[in-house]
Amino acid sequence: MRSRRVALSMITAVLTLGLVAAARDRFDLWIGATELPRLEVTVGVEVLARDNSLLRAFQVADGRWRLDAGNVDPLFLDMLMLWEDQRFEHHGGVDPVALLRAGGQALWHRRIVSGGSTLTMQVARLLESGTTGEWGGKARQIRLALALERRLSKRQILDLYLRLAPYGANVEGIRAASLQWFGKEPTRLSPAEAALLVALPQSPERRRPDRFPDTARKARDRVLARAVHAGLLSDADAGAAMAEPVPRKRRAFPALAPLLTARLVRTHPNVGRIETTIDPRLQRRAEELASRAVRGAGRRLSAAIMLADHRTGEILAEVGAADWTDGGSAGFVDMTQAWRSPGSTLKPFVYGLAFDTGLAHPETLIEDRPAAFGRWQPQNFDHIFRGTVSLRQALIWSLNIPVVKLADALGPNRVAQTLRQGGIALRLPEETAGLALMLGGGGVTLQGLATGYAALARGGRGIELSALPGGARELPLAMFGPVAAWQVGDVLAGNPAPHGTRIRPMAYKTGTSYGHRDALAVGYDGAYVGAVWLGRPDGTPVPGAFGGDLAAPVLFDLFDALPPVPLPPPPPQTLTLPNSALPLPLRRFAPAGEVSSIAANPSAPDRLVLTFPPDGALIETSGPLVVKARGGRSPWTFLVNGAPAGVGLTRPESLLPDPGPGFAQLTVIDANGASASATIRLQPADLTPR
User: Fold this and answer.
1) Which domain holds residue 408?
2) Which of 195, 332, 376, 582 has the smallest set of CB atoms within 10 Å of its CB?
3) Residue 292, Cα to own-chain centre: how many angstroms?
4) CATH at residue 283
5) Distance between CA atoms of 523 and 507, rounded to whole angstroms?
6) pTM of the model
């Protein structure tokens, strides 16, 4: 009898185990057959600075701020597990202990005291945007949570929560929340910050600190109290954290280099993370300078700035507009890429090509007098002609007649080709380049100008500037040789610094387009190249705007944020001589078909002529008056208003005392008694670069 009972018990046990096993197998099949939602959570594109800090983040397609979690402060994770799911590392998606506790508390108190959801169940709800108040929804979350635990690691589940947890309004995830409420990455949070970020997802709208600060503070303090009870925080640390106020307003998400970052996102679709060479410190400085430059200058004025390391081609800062949110000033237009008149900023390249071809030297003399080129008769910006000047003076003073003469001798198409070889793209009004290009009669971009001046800084060899690591590349053809490039830089380094700025080693040139539509300054030192534009994006004039007045001070202030790097010494083969020691063909520029009188017969006693100042000239002076004659016989004597000012001179030129503003009569007399005179008008000089 006993043996029969034992046998029956064994059969019953086997059947029970079989039923349990069958039920378990069916349960496993049921869980395994769970249809999972899409697990690839879309996050916004991030554009990073050279130090991997966030330049700008972009919202996902539905307008939500959701970012990769990145590195999160361990204190936050410890508080999160303590508050939401203490047995996260040990359960399989559902915590029976938590469910029984929550159910018992609900029956005892006749209301919900605590939830029984695990972090995995919360992830299941967030993935499907489900509800927690209906039994059907809860059952679905349990099934999906169990399925998730079988398909994903704990780290993957936690990462989904850190991306999807709601923080109110259109903000999801720990990283977006930390940037919104504290303006920083969640890598290092204070106890008060960590506790608030733990508390908010439980009731993201009713606990928003900007709307309900008392509710948010109380929820935060409950998290801190539990952290003390669990030994995560000391009483002193928790007390200090509770004394901190909660943030009362939402912060703007980072938006450094907004127009550049938007352009990079457009040109690199389907890339979630874009690294750049932008230096965030220099970028902030450039944006501050652009904003300051247009402040109080009237409506619709904007500014653009570029800064690059010409040694590597890396763009360090780029500002496309003074205020990218201001529609009144067309802040949405990236003025580093817009086609604008270069004003006088292309002149140095004409001089460089003339030096490189042996046509001229910085100390070569040239005539700044009225001249016609076909039917075109260009004028200097100030409508003043200065007679015989050196090319060095002509470039520093930005005279128009000398540069047009050089370009005419070189050929405008050859000049245009040289500009393109240096990385300056051109938009021309006609198919071929004309002489007006040298005075701003064409279109360039600010980035193109910066690229061209980088070529000057690099000895004539251009480099394509890029904001992407490894994106810069050397251009295949040089603009001209290193000697000519150095000579141009040496001349431009003689430009006086703008009033009120710190003197520093820099070769720079300013430019003002026709009608005062564009004010420009471009320059470089031994390491960096910078370019500044100010004007109105719609192309309307800005009366009284000059490159020397508006753009040059911004350029110098920009370089003040950099360590000074001296310009390089001259190449060994550079000819550094005064005009009198130059080879005869280089002493005075003579256009094709015209022979310089000095080169033809330097000792011939020509008729005495007062070559400078010319009769009727309006002369700006800031010191001694330069007078020059040609021909006659030594010695020479100069008179000012009939009084001797230079007597017994062995050369027919002199520096005479400034007779003061107004009209003056100049006379030169040679040893034979021959004379020549001119009546001129003098006015104080304005030395501001144009």
Assistant:
1) 256-598
2) 376
3) 16
4) 3.40.710.10
5) 5
6) 0.80
